[in-house]
Design a protein that fits this description.
Length: 363
């Protein structure tokens, strides 16, 4: 299967039309202004941006995919992180030496609501929001323009995947964005509390996502955490329905077994941690069976996360999840930012190993 960028037909035409409006809007409120820097003793911030630490920027663009280029650095040394929309990390802490300027480019998915598709946790602001944080943010310029031929990787999942609006909760979908280079974007349609059936049936979730899937776009499906009473036949049927409809659009479905919970019996994880549900269904095994029957790729995130969590043991594995001493809450299902980064890394490793469509766009 090809991973090369390709045209979007109607979407491309819409983006081209939007581009005319975007250029006009950005010229007054969001286009990069050369020579503008942030930090102590610096010139004004780039147009569309306010503050210093953090520096926040807003661009009045329509939903879609956008190429964003930022220049970091300036007269004094800096350390800058870049976040977009609902806490999607695009650039981890990056150091620039005094007098140095470096450019970084990304392709960003813009959606309204900007976080979880059902609006859980808030809907955010229409348009594109960028936040530069770090110990000493230094931003020289920002430019935004419509992306005309991006590969879009869609995420269908639950609260362990979604764009969590508030720290410390973090979905792995918010962290894998740091590994994706310009030319591809992550469109995260994961939503808290969703099972395979509710995700399939909610018009704001699978139907809304499917309407945007284009040829060769990968769709990563991780559902199972909330299928606590789902029968084996219903679970298989829900996954098969998604696969069939994604293929009909020319997309590439990829099944992802759910990451484990941190529930130990001695040094080993319990069946509940491994997603054997309340009616005795081994959900990861059922997902693997569907993948085999439908001949679709499967990423066994259950097995990979089991190996990671058990290797760390009952004590050290707590850092992957939420701890009362650090996060103010104890939660053995949802990830800390560190945990979401590690789990996302396992997914990215499998994408590379299987040479899935997104692999060609990973750093």
């Amino acid at each position: 299967m090809s991973t090369a960028p390709r045209g979007r037909g109607g979407q491309g035409a819409r983006l081209a039309a939007a581009g005319l409006l975007t250029v006009a809007a950005l010229a007054g409120a969001g286009a990069a202004r050369a020579g503008a820097t942030t930090g102590p003793g610096s010139a004004a911030a780039p147009a569309g941006c306010t503050g210093t630490s953090p520096l926040t920027c807003h661009y009045a663009v329509a939903p879609g995919e956008y190429d964003v280029t930022v220049s970091l650095g300036g007269a004094t040394a800096g350390q800058t992180e870049m976040w977009v929309e609902a806490r999607r990390l695009m650039l981890p802490a990056t150091t620039t030496a005094a007098g140095a300027v470096a450019a970084y480019s990304f392709t960003v998915d813009v959606r309204q609501p900007e976080g979880q598709p059902t609006g859980q946790g808030g809907t955010g602001n229409p348009g594109l929001d960028i936040r530069f944080t770090g110990s000493a943010p230094r931003v020289t310029a920002v430019s935004v323009k419509p992306a005309t031929r991006p590969l879009v990787a869609y995420l269908a999942g639950d609260s362990t995947v979604c764009d969590q609006p508030s720290a410390p909760y973090t979905g792995w979908g918010q962290m894998i964005t740091t590994a994706v280079r310009a030319g591809a974007s992550i469109a995260n349609y994961a939503d808290s509390g969703e099972s395979s059936g509710s995700f399939l049936g909610n018009s704001a979730l699978f139907p809304a996502m499917l309407s945007k899937v284009g040829a060769n776009d990968p769709v990563f499906i991780q559902l199972g955490h909330n299928d606590k009473q789902t029968t084996a036949s219903a679970y298989r049927g829900n996954l098969t329905a998604m696969i069939t409809r994604i293929r009909a659009k020319g997309g590439v479905p990829v099944l992802v077994t759910p990451p484990v919970r941190r529930l130990f019996d001695g040094a080993r994880l319990t069946p509940t941690a491994l997603h054997v549900n309340g009616v005795g269904v081994n959900l990861p095994a059922e997902m693997r069976a569907v993948a085999s029957a439908q001949r679709v790729p499967v990423i066994d995130l259950t097995a990979r996360s089991k190996a990671l969590v058990e290797s760390l043991g009952p004590s050290a594995s707590a850092q992957l999840f939420l701890r009362s001493s650090v996060d103010g809450v104890t939660d053995n299902t949802h990830f800390s930012q560190y945990g979401a980064t590690r789990i996302g890394g396992l997914l990215l490793q499998s994408i590379r190993e299987q040479n899935l469509p997104l692999a060609a766009y990973l750093h």
